[in-house]
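INPUT
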Amino acid sequence: MASILDHPLHAKVALSGLAALIALPLVMQAVDQPFYTVLASRILIFALVASSLNLIVGFGGMVCFGHAAFFGAGAYVVGILMFHGVSSAWAAWPAAVAVAMLAALVIGAVSLRTRGVYFIMITLAFAQMVYYIFVSLKVYGGDDGLPLGARSLLGLGLDLKSDVTFYYVVLAIFAVAFFFLARLLNSRFGRVLQGIRENETRMEALGYPVYRYKLIAFVLAGAVAGLGGALLANQNELTTPTMLHWTQSGTLLIMVILGGVGFLYGGLLGAAVFLLLEEVLSGYTIHWQLGVGLVLLAVVLYAPNGLSTLLRRGRAGG
Amino acid sequence: MDWILLLEQSLNGLQFGLMLFLLAAGLTLVFGIMDMINLAHGSLYMVGAYLAATVMASTGSFVLAVAGALAGTAIIGMLLEVSVLRRLYERDHLSQVLATFAILLIANEVVRIVFGSQALMLNMPEALSGPVELLPDFTYPAYRLVIIAVGLAVAVLLYLLVAKTRVGMLVRAGASNREMAMAMGVNVKRLFTAVFAVGAALSALAGAMLGPLLAVQVGMGENILILAFVVIVIGGIGSIRGALAGALLVGVVDTMGRTLLPMSLRAVLPPSMAANLGSSLASILIYVLMAAVLFWRPQGLFPARGG
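OUTPUT
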């Protein structure tokens, strides 16, 4: 029997989606539109980060308004290591994950002692601290950000300078992380996490170490966000403080809400729709933000749980 | 330590704090009474500054500019509340964040379409542009003194309105227990619209008054909005008294930190490094303060809710 706590991957959907994503660069090369491969990499990176945010917001009930801190920290670790001559992806990317994890551990350990609105605000406060720390590091570019000069070296005969190769690396990382997320949510850990979201006191009474579960989820999400930051820094060959700004945390949260809070595909769907909307509208007018704003507003007013509402409605109707 | 510098910086801190209070007062009432996170509050501040700059450019009168900004933004705020925000009170915080973020984007673009993307100039009135000698050897810009006076006057008026009038009583009732206020027959809908309009007018006042000191440009509301959130969290959500205390604390700590930290660091570090590190430490300081308050006193320094 299916429960609302089940979040099936829907093997058919997942596999056909994966097949389409694998075919995408080939198609784009055939029709001579390589730009869309770059856009797709960007979408997958944001989908990775938004999915990690959805883990804590949607399944853990922890509305974090400071996810950009981990995202940006990951990016800066890659940038700073590159600045000092460490260009191996095998050194820089795990370092980015480790630093983001550590930041999430410290920030989470303090923030998770608060609840609700206060949690939103304290994560915001910590993210702003991280933002100002990096703005003040003039050695690493300060306000202007830090250009990487080149992408990380992966070895294995893969050259990340090629946008197509980079896309496949991002796709592989995203696919693994997404599969892991689906497994995690349907595991005992995922059930406990959702139990905590529904009723923390009851879970406490049942003997679960609530704080520890929440902290583990928070650190896990921070780690994935750090990896996403490392990837985005590589894609743009640049890290900037805007990746750490509160509006970035806001944008990530918007992607999750847009796609569907507590919906397995929410992060992916939200990131894809948000970035495609931005891309399409900015092709037509410089005032594309107006269009994005109007669409977002319509979604909140008419689709209370984001785009996942429409999918569910469609399924119920069909 | 140079006492003149100290005095000047305290006055600057007071001035900045009072302007933050104007922004935070509306935000804290909306947050406290309607339990609504309004990320678009900074947009009203921006709209106020733009309206003031426009009226100033066409009439040349600063008083008219401020009045126009107040009235115009109050009306815009009211329309916004009736058309969109009203539907969000019953929704969760996440929906409110998404919706008001959308409004923020829309407001930025509409302003850009109407006024262009160039920053506007808002000149301070001729008569106030000079310095005033407050003490022998101590001069202070007259315009900043006016800002302090306006801020103090509004704070007193708002205190009287909230603490001494019937409307204020309803507002306090709403902030401390919304359901009970509704059950006692308070017309909450009308009250909410009125509160929102007053909050919009106050943030427009801040925008118009700060316009001559800062640039009037798209996005000016975003950073100050976060400061306003810091203020209301420190002060206690829904509390006007808390908003005033929090605003003054943040204004003074931020301003003093920006001058004193680089100065004291210069004693131990090379000058350019001291300046950088000092200003970023000063920016961080208020967030450390906020995190500390949230950690030890989550309800803020002056909680509005009883019990």
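end of record. Chain B touches chain A through 44 residues (CB under 8 Å).
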